[in-house]
Amino acid sequence: MQRYDVTIVGGGSAGLTLALLLAPLGLKVALLEKGPMPQPAAPQFARVSALNPASMRVLSTVGAWSGIAKSAQPYTAMRVWEADSFANIDFSDAAGQPLGWICDNEQIRQQLYLQIQQQANIECLFDCDISKLEQTEREVLVQTASGQLLLSQLLVGADGVNSFVRQQQQLALTHWDYDQQAIVAIINTQLPHQQVARQVFLASGPLALLPLPGQQQCSIVWSAENAVATELMALSDTEFNQALTAASQSVLGCLSLNSARQRFGLKMRYASQWLRGRVLLVADAAHSIHPLAGQGMNLGLMDVAALAQILAAQQQAGKPLAEHRALRHYERWRKAEAQTLIAAMEAFKRGFSNDQHALKLVRGLGMSVLNKLPGVKQQIIAAALGNSGDLPDIARP
Ligand SMILES: Cc1cc2nc3c(=O)[nH]c(=O)nc-3n(C[C@H](O)[C@H](O)[C@H](O)COP(=O)(O)OP(=O)(O)OC[C@H]3O[C@@H](n4cnc5c(N)ncnc54)[C@H](O)[C@@H]3O)c2cc1C
């Protein structure tokens, strides 16, 4: 039987970052991951995330950012527009600072794991299946399929959208289908992307063109209604390239696939309860949102930074880690932030998936006015930079 202060289930970006934030507090941490150990490999960009400066600061704190940045593509402007309308809006930072970075998801995990290997008080178990999870008033017991027993004061579910921890602890989930699927691929572009992240709203859903290293490569996230996505997946590469170029309104000239297409079903998931006794949820285990604003991983990293801050305060005050009042503080704080984003994504998705001419006109006027209002635009830029809302200390500018 091994004793730990905190057991983390899930070694994605959220779980690995949390382990690294807790280790300097002197806490003994176990991290259980059902998949294999991250292996060093060159970035493939099969899955990417747009990370904002607030996330960059969190990843810098744990020592992983310099490694991630080596393969990341900064973007210094964002351009959003609506197809077949005059609605458009452009964002850039007045000081020319990056608004964010397009990062390879696997590189993020690899660089975090490199840091973890230097921490004596984090123990990782990979290829690990949990066969039992029980909590008493005093501790949480985990038994792995290979028979190991782990006891800890606190257990954190960082095990993604289909969280085993959430289901096992019967934490209620609200969910709805966005009725869209995201098609993800790497593409070559005829024209240079010039470090601009672009997104066009089509009647069937948004298409994002995210700049990758090298001026003429992008990652696309094409979210489309289920039927449209099925049709797009069935097209030959040549037909898909034509459809993609047309959908992008040739903003980067002719576009052509440079990887296979992957498809992801899109669902909003929100756990109405994130906490039961000594077990709590973070990141995608607690919430998953539409990728149209590229905020899911950013939100999860803020969750773990907030939780680490609260646990550090408990440590310093000599109070128990899993004190109910402290864990409720985490839950209330982060639920409020997640709810704000979920509502914003819903408004965006519904607002732009209506093709009525009158609505289109209003959207066009609204976006054009926004584009000229520096005060409002500054607020939107602050949100995109991750600088708005109630940020954990280490994420503040
Ligand atoms: C198409 C698409 C585009 C996106 N683009 C962006 C973007 O641009 N910017 C952004 O911020 N976000 C983006 N996101 C969201 C982002 O990918 C997720 O929010 C983020 O990866 C979630 O991280 P996580 O650590 O919570 O979960 P995950 O990355 O899913 O990690 C969970 C880990 O838990 C492990 N696990 C699962 N079950 C168990 C178990 N029973 N026991 C042990 N381990 C377990 C899994 O193997 C996995 O390693 C996008 C999402 C999609 C679908």
Key terms:
397 residues; 8-stranded mixed beta sheet; D-Amino Acid Oxidase, Chain A, domain 2; binds flavin-adenine dinucleotide; 2 domains; alpha+beta; single chain; FAD/NAD(P)-binding domain
Write the layout of secondary structure elements.
Layout: E1 2-9, H1 13-22, E2 29-32, E3 48-51, H2 53-61, H3 65-69, E4 73-75, E5 77-82, E6 88-92, E7 100-104, H4 105-116, E8 122-125, E9 130-135, E10 140-144, E11 149-157, H5 164-168, E12 173-189, E13 196-202, E14 205-211, E15 217-225, H6 226-234, H7 237-247, E16 255-257, E17 262-271, E18 275-276, E19 279-281, E20 287-288, H8 296-316, H9 324-352, H10 357-372, H11 374-384
Parallel strand pairs: 1-2, 1-11, 2-8, 5-13, 11-19
Antiparallel strand pairs: 3-7, 4-7, 5-6, 9-10, 10-11, 12-15, 12-16, 12-17, 13-14, 14-15, 17-20, 18-19
Helix pairs in contact: 1-4, 1-8, 8-9
The protein binds flavin-adenine dinucleotide.
